[in-house]
Design brief:
By secondary structure, the protein is of the alpha/beta class. It has 19 helices and eleven strands.
């Protein structure tokens, strides 16, 4: 009886998973492109059974999906000029508003996947956006070419693409006339623009060998940074430690006046107040619905003056002035687009001001994931951008590096037994520092050079080997080395070195 019951349960799971091995024709899991009664894209009913065990305190693996491009659908690859022509047909104000909301929708789904362990929320968000924007003709083409593909693995919309679309519409959209995006047929241009931008991801031929791999790394790194969220808890803990007890223990002049300077620069907010307010804004936008577009539209815009807010409207607006930009000023923040690489990789304008102010009662965060970055890096860039001389910026950069080094050493002390950790290891002769820390592991030693550095925007988003791996950015990459001079008190041969860095920029 037990075996029969197990077989029945297994058969039921297969049917629920869309396996189709029992009865009728072969089923398919939800997320495949189908046509509903209204002619739009929809998915089959039922639920695909999927399990994923997630251990506590483990880093989430990189999530990889491949997006759909026009050449894959049997159409020629567009040039950048042709993509710009599509953007020119869209009314600027309408296009920016709709694209900003679409990116918020995807960003909220990404956060829900990360915080709530919801493995289906992203592809369901794809499904909603496709249903809203795809034309009859394009849906037929997608179904003909990708009939067995699942939206979990093959995507049309993604955040870097929508942010690129916002850049194009801001720079080239029609300021007065153009497509106002009022009907379902009007929205079809957004799918066409998305597929065209996806087709620009091939930045040219990659050289063979090691140099080619480094070129590819320079192109993939910005996408990896954007699409895989930093851990919110790490950012909160790191900023509290670095700007709390560790900062207060430093006797340098800039360390003593740093918080007062920050209060002045942020219109009256201390480190703790800034962090708390930013977390409150993030909490609002990350809770918008991704299961219903109607519910999403009702909450997409934040009203700081709404009744029931835990903070008064004027104080909210005072804080939002640190993050928001007036909607009419958005086009002026976009840099000139010289090639596809500049279009897709450099998203600095959105990182600086991720919130748009439409009116005193209507604020839109176009990407809540960027608020997570602000919780970690906002302190550094707020102060650094306001310092008036190169000497003071250098002083502050050194102070930040010291705070970060002490924070990492604290983490190492917590994780590594004292008899296996050597701090500020030095050579026997001459007596000079070799590394910031050494962790002993049997006959090996793992050495750490701790740098709280930031890459320059031009190099970081160049997509090219030489600028990205220039000496001032080389702290980003672990470099295998060997040395014949072990640190004092260490007999192991040094075989590996890794740069432990602040991934904030």
């Amino acid at each position: 009886m037990s075996r029969k019951r197990n077989r029945r349960e297994l058969a039921a799971r297969r049917v629920a998973a869309g396996d189709g091995r029992r009865g009728g024709r072969r089923g398919r899991a939800p997320g495949h492109l189908e046509r509903g009664a209204d002619g739009a894209a929809s998915s089959r009913d039922g639920r695909r059974l999927r399990t994923r065990r997630r251990e506590e305190h483990m880093i989430t693996p990189t999530r990889v999906s491949s997006f759909i491009s026009l050449p894959e659908l049997g159409e020629p690859k567009p040039t950048l000029r042709e993509v710009i022509q599509i953007a020119k047909t869209i009314n600027r104000a309408a296009g920016l508003s709709i694209l900003g909301q679409m990116n918020l929708f995807l960003g909220a789904a990404a956060i829900k996947e990360d915080l709530e362990d919801d493995v289906d929320v992203r592809w369901k968000a794809q499904e909603h956006l496709i249903r809203t924007t795809v034309s009859e003709r394009r849906l037929r083409i997608l179904k003909a070419n990708l009939l067995t593909a699942h939206l979990r693995d093959r995507i049309v919309f993604h955040r870097s693409q929508l942010l690129s679309a916002i850049k194009l519409v801001a720079l080239f959209g029609e300021p007065v006339r153009g497509n106002m995006l009022e009907s379902h047929d009007d929205f079809g241009v957004l799918t066409e623009l998305a597929l065209a931008i996806n087709s620009l991801s091939d930045f040219g031929s990659i050289p063979s060998g090691r140099v080619g791999a480094r070129d590819l790394a320079a192109q993939l790194a910005p996408a990896r940074e954007l699409e895989n969220l930093p851990r919110l808890d790490n950012g909160l803990v790191r900023s509290r430690r670095m700007l709390g007890r560790i900062l207060s223990s430093k006797k340098k002049p800039l360390a003593r006046e740093l918080e007062r300077l920050f209060v002045f620069l942020t219109n009256g907010f201390s480190f703790d107040a800034f962090r708390d307010m930013l977390f409150g804004i993030f909490s609002y936008f990350q809770t918008v619905s991704t299961s219903s577009l109607e519910e999403f539209r009702r909450r997409a815009f934040f009203n700081p003056n709404a009744i029931g807010n835990p903070v008064s409207g004027p104080l909210f607006q005072q804080f939002l002035s640190n993050l928001a930009i007036d909607f009419d000023e958005v086009p002026g923040t976009m840099r000139r687009i010289t090639d596809a690489c500049a279009l897709k990789l450099d998203l600095t304008a959105f990182r600086t001001r991720p919130i748009w102010r439409f009116s005193p009662d209507r604020y839109l965060c176009i990407d809540p994931c960027l608020l997570v970055e602000k919780l970690a890096s906002g302190f550094y860039w707020t102060v650094n951008a306001a310092l008036d001389t190169e000497h003071r910026r250098l002083q502050f950069s050194r102070l930040w590096g010291t705070l970060f080094e002490e924070h990492v050493l604290e983490m190492l002390r917590y994780a590594v037994p004292p008899n296996r950790l050597v701090e500020n290891a030095s050579y026997d002769t001459p007596r000079e520092e070799a590394f910031d820390a050494v962790v002993l592991d049997g006959v090996h030693a793992i050495v750490f050079e701790i740098k709280g550095s930031f890459a320059k925007t031009e190099a970081k988003y160049s997509g090219r080997f030489l600028p990205f791996f220039s000496p001032e950015n080389s702290w980003r990459v672990p470099i295998p080395v060997q040395t014949q001079r072990p640190p004092c008190g260490t007999s192991a041969v040094l075989t590996t070195t890794c740069a432990t860095t602040e991934a904030l920029a």
